[in-house]
Write a structure and sequence with these properties.
The structure is a homotetramer. By secondary structure, the first copy, chain A, is α+β, with helices and mostly antiparallel strands. The first copy, chain A, contains seven helices and 18 strands. Chain A has a single domain, classed as Chorismate synthase AroC (Chorismate synthase, AroC fold, 4-Layer Sandwich), CATH 3.60.150. In chain A, helix 3 crosses helix 7. The longest helix of chain A has 27 residues.
Chain lengths: ~350, ~350, ~350, ~350
């Protein structure tokens, strides 16, 4: 792998920069003969795209996808799917002022150190727009998982310290922050709107729940199911941590509390988060990720330029003051890719 | 990959069960011509082995390693290193009583679901003994990192709710729990000894600090440096979560707080944990992992047998009431493997 | 890998069917900061495209490429290059007559058996048009190899039994069959034109010579340099065999003849074809491939349909009666990809 | 991959040098629950081992294998199999005289150029002894293929210009050169014995036939079934070429001759060698490889030493004057690994 490819038997390769002609994804290993069309994928794209609500960036990247290869007469052929999205709302000149400055919290500095060259237009390859390809691929994986009766849902549980107290699944897609508690969602939205006015941003926590996974999925040792999910999630730019089941709270638990006892009807608790020894146990797979506050803020910050001179910087632009609602479909997409890939790996092992 | 291999340009494959003839590891991609002998590796093995202190299992697996291939006249040849450890303290019959029961918190149930067959002798492949191979490989990576002036150190920061208040690096290897605060270490040891008497176990938190990594290391998008470290850590059986830099605390921070500003001398804070956009920024790489309480406890627990009958189980054996001190060298080993591998990937990119 | 990806540190993924919207390639791992533009790549595309001469298909796929990502201000950025080619001369309806028949020599039957579904429009993914992406990627690799003073040249040495007697490198690109002997080329062209009239096709042999490769390139054991080149070449649809150096003739040689002796100025012969033990020895790397006669011929052939009924088939279309001249740039492209990838692997090992 | 690993879903990693403590192999991805014991594997090891007959080296490496992990109570567990062979007939001092010389035809020079260090004891990692691990892994694959009714057989068809005229499958394992024509075998043996006396060696051709493979196996584009088999075969030290079906003869055939027509009972010819478009078509898979004459000969040859001084060298040792009979089981082993791996890949695709 050279960095832009993910998965083994179901595999995606994303490409494109935020300000080039297009971004997209190649998906390999797709089960042939499955009904799939652009509309099905577009539903997920629309959940990720900017400009959905008052709390997301007003940029108008209408993420209209095209399937360029890999389907025929409305079905997958088993050959690589290429899904393309043209970039339509490009304003590279907007970045002229900052092209020699390292924006705090952004990858400007590290990309320049890695590559010795910097595409300063809107973060280049490090742009969140890269995740559009992931969401498209994830929709393909989700289509395959439907045939296995596996479902994947993610939702905000905390923003800027405001926590959800209830779990109302039906409410998730009805509020702008995709929170599982509609009352908390209102307070979250208010807070975000205030922060936007203040030129600041905030972080949060997103939980993901995967239902219907058969017990026995996951590879031993290095390719544990939770290890792969952790990699998948940490590969999303804004994510700074992950925990499964009881997670960090397990650090303060006793074995007698944490061990999930079994009775005839299955596991009595789910401190393990549905994965033991790296292999699914049939319970819901549950994990939470820490989402950092958006790096782009419009207040003045201290930084340096390429020559090391101290400078101040103010990122005027169109940004999400909190990325949680838009990272939800990306988290789901990555989870779908991992689970479907592991089903295929297991089929290979047992065949 | 089929589960037992890790890494790309520096790669390890572990093998062996806890109660077979031997366990070991193959390490591929090792820089040729580097001085390396068994004694260098043995130092790390001895940090992982059981029976080091009052708080670790009294099992006597003296983990004496042998380099079977890949060195010549005291130097690496560039060909695969095979490192073997014979199993010497095997008592498979000790497991006869539980061979039809699923031990709570253990991978017995999930392995049986995955493979349809169960090697019930001491967890088989899911045994912590598998990590001996990782530590051996990690020692090889550490040897290569010395030539890059990179150092990796991990240490316990919390056990059963007892937290370290100071960071005394010199004290880490001098106390039985490898805590960075010797006063806290005393209380931790006392607690663990009490829990052992009570037939229970506890978890904790281990932090890892990697110093000297040049800025620019890490692959964009899916193979971000933090994503790979997350996978590496979650592939260790007892680890249930990971966070980088400010980690989960970032969820309650503002962008204006979390962004690491720069001045002429570098980053003024390290909320990012040394990695931005998946690429090292030259600051220390810092992450913490959640260690669950040891699953094997001697108090009575509820479970089922292979036919689903409800049963009670009591795991009499020789187990660590807290795995933190022994997981420290495993965490370091995995971190060494990742960092050295990424140096090699970067060399390939720039060549 | 799931079939459409090739390489490790320099990697390509091709996508697209002959009769979809576009075909293309993603190239990962490209050295950053290298000058590269569309014109450089287009030169190679034009060598592969149909309609170059009287002996190639008159189809007018003018293979105009676009670099969609991975360059900035005329230089590579180190992020994935996406190169797209729109399909412009599609006539899927031309295949209506044969959509239930298996064309002899074509992959119709095997694709249907593999996928259970068949995209009958012009061979779908099995179309030679897929190689356009390879040639584009190979041009990128060639650009990187220029900086290493490595050159790759392939040329026809035999067509339909007519063999080249001389090696005139300057003549290769001046004749329509890309033969290294201009006199033989004339006879070859005449023969092909006659076969086209007769509704038949012919095969040939192409040799490839790689100059300037430093000694020491290649991985031991499974990833031998010749093994990887063999895979690269056999992955081209029309290739049915490969031999290195003395090749099949070695089967009738003695050790005393075949061993390449050395004197102070280097190897005195090159029976090994520049590779010993899977590693380059500094001599020219030389291999030959067997090119089968084009499967599409306009004479009547016997076949069956999807129900197993015996049928006769006549492939009316626009096809190359001999693919040798157009496979030459594909062979070079694959060789460029392998050699550049192995340079990068070696850099990783030694770093 | 870093060179010593082969396969994707069924994967092997070999390790060990000819004069170290042991050689061996790790096999990952083995179907669980399959009966397998050491005796089954030993049968194949004994076909590869030296000292079987008058035409093989008299070295006494009795290749007794041990399964160190991955089986339990006579069945595979699905976890990595480690198979070890101790080295018992080591005479490293026998190589003292030549440790500064590059043996013609051997990898001494290229390994030194690659690694900058040379393990001169019996070729180190480049030794043919490395193939013992392959044969062990191949036996595991063969066991799995039995359950699919796939069989793999290889045999000598030509040695030093002496060709087989008949195909008598029952005779193959009854003659010392594993030729398919017992009369030709006698002449071959005579020739080899004479060459051994003369201090010379010879090459030959080995054919491999794989029966029972279902149509539809193979990945499109780069991972074509023939491409992977080609890589597998060229990864064997002595192999310098490969051809499928009509192979190089196809270069002089017309499309009307080479295309395999179909009737109601299947393909009427097998010029394709059982693979079209990289995918099996249900006919026998047939390929031939060119085996070079053994590099080690006892006559005087010209070479240089590490300083470039011209020297003469005489390789006194115990070597095979023709490696064909002992390479037969290695070819079969590699073929078994590829076919079983591709079955597993196909299962993953369709699942």
């Amino acid at each position: 792998m050279a960095g832009s490819t993910f998965g083994e038997r179901l595999k995606m390769t994303t490409f494109g920069e935020s300000h080039g002609e297009a971004v997209g994804v190649i998906v390999e290993g797709v089960t042939p003969g499955v009904e799939l069309d652009e509309a099905y994928i577009q539903v997920q794209m629309d959940r990720r795209r900017p400009g959905q609500s008052s709390v997301t960036t007003p940029r108008k990247e209408y993420d209209k996808i095209r399937i360029v290869s890999g389907t025929f007469e409305g079905r997958t052929t088993g050959t690589p799917l290429c899904i393309l999205l043209n970039n339509t709302d490009m304003r590279p000149s907007a970045y002229d002022d900052i092209k020699t400055l390292y924006r705090p919290g952004h990858a400007d500095f590290t990309y320049e150190k890695k590559y010795g060259i910097r595409d300063y237009r809107g973060s280049g390859r490090a742009s969140g727009r890269e995740t559009a390809g992931r969401v498209a691929a994830g929709a393909v994986a989700r289509r395959l998982l439907e045939n296995r009766s596996v479902s994947v849902v993610a939702y905000t549980t905390e923003i800027d310290g405001i926590k959800c107290d209830t779990f109302d699944e039906a409410a998730i897609e009805s509020n702008a922050v995709r929170a599982c508690d509609p009352a908390a969602a209102e307070r979250m939205i208010e807070r975000i709107e205030q922060l936007a006015k203040d030129g600041d941003s905030c972080g949060g926590i997103v939980e993901c729940r995967i239902r219907g996974v058969a017990p026995g999925l996951g590879e031993p040792v290095f390719d544990k199911l939770d290890a792969e999910l952790a990699k998948a999630m940490l590969s999303i730019g804004a994510i700074k941590g992950i925990e499964f089941g009881a997670g960090f709270a397990a650090a303060a638990m006793r074995g007698s509390q944490h061990n999930d006892a079994m009775d005839a009807s299955g596991f009595k608790t789910n401190n393990a988060g549905g994965i033991i020894g790296g292999i699914s146990n049939g319970a819901d797979i549950v994990f939470r990720v820490a989402v950092k506050p958006t790096s782009s803020i419009s207040s003045v910050q201290q930084t340096v330029d390429g020559e090391g001179n101290e400078r101040s910087i103010q990122t005027i632009g169109r940004h999400d003051p909190c990325i949680c609602p838009r990272v939800v479909p990306v988290i789901e997409a990555m989870a779908c890719m991992v689970i479907e890939d592991y089903y295929k790996r297991q089929a290979a092992l047992l065949d």
